[in-house]
Amino acid sequence: MKRGFALPIFSLLLSALPLKALEIQGMSVPPTAQVNGQKLQLNGAGLRTFALLMIPIKIYVASVYTPAAIRTATSMMSSQGPMQFDFTFLRAVGQSDVVKAWTSQFAQSVSYTYPGYARDRDAFIAMLGPLKNMGVEQVQLIGTNTVVFDQGSLKGTIPGRDFQKSFLSLWFGSNPVAADLKASLLGM
């Protein structure tokens, strides 16, 4: 077999194998997700921790699903999707802490803003409520819409590609929420 054909054939064989769930912190992360009738594959997943008095606190498991593997931040930022982000919380979180956490993440990590950004950011945060242990916040990027689910309930939609770019910049921009989580979501 010629050397140039080995990698494409190997990749084809791997894609034919059944996908397995990934396990993080005892939680099973499914290998695929359905978004708007399209099957997406797990691109990457990782654990978000926060240091409190130098003690790491495990907050949530994040996962992102894409139509095909995306391994660079630039490619992720320019992807037209669809995509799905799941945030499974490893502890119960009250409403005020949910608002504080998202507000802080947006303030510290968003590297893409636009006229109307503050309005869209505030609308997004207002869609998210208190979380029970293992509660899931889910964000789907479909066309130019950002669709928000909180613990399985549809909470609303934010129209426009601009907000999608802002949301993506939280994880893949120049100052991501967590560098190790960025690498994990990119499957590295």
Describe this structure in words.
- With 188 residues, the protein is an alpha+beta fold.
- The chain has one domain: Chalcone isomerase.
- It contains 6 helices and 9 strands, in the order H-E-E-E-E-E-H-E-H-H-E-E-E-H-H.
- The strands form 2 sheets. Strands 3-4-5-6-7-8-9 form a 7-stranded antiparallel β-sheet. A two-stranded antiparallel ribbon has the order 1-2.
- A hairpin with a 2-residue loop joins strand 1 and strand 2.
- Helix 3 packs antiparallel against helix 4 and helix 3 crosses helix 5.
- The protein starts with a helix and ends with a helix.
- The relative contact order is 0.16.
Keywords:
single chain; 188 residues; alpha+beta; Chalcone isomerase; seven-stranded antiparallel β-sheet; two-stranded antiparallel sheet; 34% helix; globular
Summarize the structure.
With 188 residues, this protein is α+β, with helices and mostly antiparallel strands. Helices cover 34% and strands 34% of the residues.
SS element count, helices: 6
Number of domains: 1
Strand content: 25-35%
Helix content: 25-40%
Structural category: alpha+beta
CATH-defined fold name: Chalcone isomerase
Strand count, sense and barrel status of the largest sheet are:
7 strands, antiparallel
Task: Please state the overall shape, judged from the principal axes of the Cα atoms.
Answer: globular
Strand order of the largest sheet: 3-4-5-6-7-8-9
- Helix and strand string, N-terminal first? HEEEEEHEHHEEEHH
Topology summary:
Blueprint: H1 3-16, E1 22-24, E2 27-29, E3 32-35, E4 38-52, E5 55-66, H2 73-78, E6 83-89, H3 95-109, H4 117-126, E7 136-142, E8 145-150, E9 153-159, H5 161-172, H6 179-185
Antiparallel strand pairs: 1-2, 3-4, 4-5, 5-6, 6-7, 7-8, 8-9
